[in-house]
Write a structure and sequence with these properties.
By secondary structure, the chain is α+β, with helices and mostly antiparallel strands. The protein is globular and about 90 Å long.
Length: about 625
């Protein structure tokens, strides 16, 4: 029996130690019989050698002598169209016909592949250049688990190295509107579809969808090839054995929180945001990675209650974020060129690992829509050159059943570039987080606003924009339940018939906000409640408006409702009518009589943005 291996893995740091003996060893040398199909010997009970290469090696078959052990049964990996069976190599006389037939299949398959599918083939081979018959033959002869792992990880790399990076305009701090989430989503979808077509054309199995014992064995074999794992995957598995992999699989299957957060290895902004969320809103026990980060911040294991208060204040105050006790952690995080993208890619690679461990996880489909909202810049372009408002709508479908929608607006503050930078960072953080699968509840959405706050504070460390910040207003609708999440004076409004059912209370005094992302988010409320909150039950015919103060400060909700009724059930037309009405009241020195008989409102020349949604 092999000697038990003692190791120190990720579980030593964040979960109970997983130990086990080396249960999977290999005695495999992939060979090509010149006159026959590709074969690989069965794994036997006394396997003792690891797979030397994921790609088939050309080696001559050695004849078995009388004194040799009986030859093991062989599994034959043949080109598409050939059956998998246990049989000896064909006779030399049949070589020309079989070779011609195989070459014909390769040519046919190659002719069916799109350029993107050929690119995936080359990425699996880790080669540059064009895909030829030789490359396709090599691709088909690869170890199935390693082949799929390489393909999946290459798709994950789109987060940081995709073609979308070449489509992004040069970062302009005067107006850095980040629309990269939609570009990334489109490229990921195209590559996943190409991957499935490639598997169909080549008649190769998709192991991540196969729960058979044979598929599980192939996947475990691939995970044991340390060189094939990404850095985050290696950090999660450590010096894994077959026993520890099975134990980790069972643990993750039973623990949803561990499953969703397995990617959080090193200190990162998301973990800081999660700590801030728990310190302020949810006194639940800290996760192991959160405990480890807090201990690292204070350089000790025993944290006093007063130190938690100090940390909470530091995470919530712009003046203390880059100072002690967070100074060292912030310096490490700021070294990353793009921490948000780095985290999203780590999360995607961890999802690949979950699939290879046969851990069932939620399937999340995301759709980002920028057509639902309407925005208009203020007319004073000399003193207010940029439209600091941004908006987005996101649809989230979980396991093809639970559906949620998010309408969000952001009103940047800080003037002259600062406001537009902050609102862009907040919108980008919300969209990337949704695309990464981090938003599955209204609590998650509020946590992401705290993450957006941290992303803005990090950007302040490198940009000379100390006053920049933004408001945020999110209308989160989940199965006819409404959750309004806001920070600042941008409101959400729920209207029914001729009544205002619910409305956000502004975090402002005399038009000066006291809570904002990047500007000390003292309040991030859900349905106007700081901690315990109840949803608003929606009814058919209700109207939800999410807008900036450029709308709400100059219009009564009755006037908004009048515009909605005039538009019928056309949400976009209703938004344009409201914008038009608000735009007619731009004189700061004038009071405008309301159209509904309510008291007059003072004019305001400001950016105006809103999203209208009919229930």
């Amino acid at each position: 029996m092999p000697t038990a291996i003692k190791r120190r893995s990720y579980d030593d740091l964040l979960r109970p130690t997983l130990q086990g003996s080396l249960g999977i060893t290999f005695r495999t040398v992939l060979r090509v019989i010149p006159s026959g199909p590709l074969i690989v010997p069965d794994q036997t009970a006394e396997r003792s050698q690891k797979i030397s290469s994921p790609v088939v090696e050309n080696r001559e078959a050695k004849p078995t002598t009388a004194k040799s052990k009986a030859a093991p049964t062989t599994l034959i990996f043949q080109l598409p169209g050939a059956e998998e069976t246990a049989k000896p190599a064909p006779k030399a006389t049949a070589v020309p016909a079989q070779k011609e037939e195989k070459d014909g299949r390769l040519i046919k398959i190659l002719s069916q592949l799109s350029d993107l599918e050929k690119t995936l083939v080359m990425s699996a081979l880790q080669k540059a250049g064009d895909c030829s018959e030789d490359e396709l033959r090599e691709f088909l002869g690869m170890h199935p688990g390693v082949r799929e792992l390489r393909l999946r990880n290459s798709i994950c790399a789109i987060w940081s190295e995709g073609s979308w990076t070449k489509s992004m305009p040069v970062k302009d701090k005067a107006r850095p509107v980040f629309d990269r989430a939609r570009l990334i989503a489109k490229e990921l979808e195209q590559n996943h579809e190409a991957y499935e077509r490639l598997c169909a054309h080549c008649a190769i199995p998709v192991l991540s969808k196969d729960r058979s014992d044979k598929a599980k064995e192939r996947k475990l074999e691939a995970l044991m090839q340390i060189s094939e794992l990404s850095p985050i995957q290696r950090a999660i598995l450590g010096n894994a054995t077959s026993d520890s992999l099975l134990a980790l699989s069972n643990q993750l299957t039973e623990n949803e929180d561990a499953r969703r957060n397995i990617w959080r290895i090193s200190p990162n902004p998301y973990t800081l945001a999660s700590i801030a969320y728990k310190l302020r809103f949810d006194p639940a026990e800290m996760r192991p990675d959160e405990q480890a980060l807090i201990q690292k911040i204070f350089c000790k294991s025993d944290i006093l209650p007063g130190e938690f208060d100090k940390l909470n204040f530091a995470l919530s105050n712009e003046q203390t974020f880059s100072k002690e006790p967070l100074k060292g952690i912030c310096a490490n995080i700021c070294r990353s060129k793009d921490p948000l993208i780095d985290m999203a890619m780590a999360s995607a690679e961890a999802d690949v690992l979950l699939d290879f461990l046969d851990v069932r996880r939620s399937k999340i489909d995301i759709s980002i829509d920028h057509s639902r909202g309407v925005s208009k810049a203020c007319s004073d372009t000399e003193n207010h050159p940029n439209n600091d408002d941004l908006y987005t709508s996101i649809a989230i479908l979980i396991d093809e059943g639970k559906e949620s929608t998010i309408d969000a607006v952001f009103d940047g503050v800080g003037g002259h570039a600062g406001g537009s930078v902050a609102s862009s960072l907040a919108k980008d953080t919300l969209e990337i987080s949704a695309l990464a699968g981090w938003i599955q509840s209204p609590q998650d959405a509020r946590r992401i606003l705290l993450l957006a706050n941290i992303m803005i504070l990090i950007d302040k460390e490198t940009a000379n924009l100390p006053q920049m910040g933004t408001t945020a207003s999110i209308s989160y609708i989940e199965e006819q339940k409404f959750y309004g999440i806001h920070c600042g004076d941008s409101p959400w409004i729920v209207m029914r018939a001729d009544k205002q059912v619910s409305r956000a209370r502004p975090h402002a005094v005399n038009n000066a906000i006291f809570s904002g992302l990047g500007l000390s988010p003292r309040s991030v409320d859900v349905n106007n409640m700081p901690k315990v909150f109840k949803p608003v039950d929606l009814q058919p015919g209700d109207v939800v408006i999410t807008c900036t103060d450029g709308i709400s400060d100059v219009l009564c909700f009755h006037e908004m409702l009048m515009a909605v009724k005039e538009a019928g059930m056309d949400a976009n037309l209703a938004a344009r009518k409201i914008i038009e009405m608000a735009g007619s009241r731009s004189d700061h020195d004038q009071e405008y009589p309301s159209l509904c008989g309510c008291k007059p409102k003072k004019g305001k020349d400001d950016d105006q943005t809103l999203i209208v949604r009919f229930i």
